[in-house]
Write a structure and sequence with these properties.
By secondary structure, the chain is an alpha/beta fold. The chain folds into 2 domains: about 5-85 and about 195-265, Rossmann fold, CATH 3.40.50.1000; about 90-190, Hypothetical Protein, Haloacid Dehalogenase-like Hydrolase, Chain: A, domain 2 (2-Layer Sandwich). It contains 8 helices and 14 strands. Strand 13 (about 235), helix 7 and strand 14 (about 250) form a beta-alpha-beta unit. Pfam families: Hydrolase_3.
Length: about 270
Amino acid sequence: MKNLKNIIKCAAFDIDGTILPNGNTKFSQKTIDAFSLLRKNGIVSILATAREFSTICDFLEQLKPDYFIGANGSFILDCNKNEIIYEVGLNLNEVKILYDEFYNDNFNFIITDVNKSYYSKNTNLDTWFIRPNISKYEELDFNKVIDKRIYVITLSGENISNKVDLINEFINKNNLNMEINSTWSRGIFIGPKKTTKSSTLELLTKKIGYSNDNLIAFGDSSNDFEMIRDAVYGVAMERANWRIKSVADDVALDCEYDGAYLKLKELKLI
């Protein structure tokens, strides 16, 4: 690897589990300093996360990144101009088709558009992810959901990860323009087809005169796989599983120990 200082022009970070411990709403001072130092060194800073406008809290104010890629790649916000410069959304009728097929008391939906997150009855809202943002959540009313500006569907429930194949089969059979882009033990994210953090990072880096060959990316989860793989220098957090680490160029200490900050220091990028 050549001197990264001469190559890296953009730095992308997942949030939860990467630069912020799960359940926290305040970044460490070293993480805040990292973003300030990146700016000072002329490196574009990007948050690339599953979070969207309902769940981003005051993170943009805390970190002051240049760009916010949200909902696993469904939109790009230019933070300096407070302007959405790219977005791709789900079709409301297709979302209804999926909902009608799979919603039940043990299989809950949260449908997130540009303004709000709408939850089905019996959805557990008492989680570390939702609790700080509860004012942005409303009970689902399809008449309020904005067509083609639906960024992500979150499915949750017991043993939901066992339903991935069934959901994929239904999506493909009905030719729905959506796909599962991340799973965990009690949840599934569904977004627009062929949309990932990495694909949107590629669009953004080209738009600002660079490419993924100028990108360092930090992440810890399945929705970070592609951006860690496709960045010229991908960094997995220590907590990441073997699959994520298998495509990474490096491993950083976890966010509880300011791993991203320390890795940027080690690589002489800040």
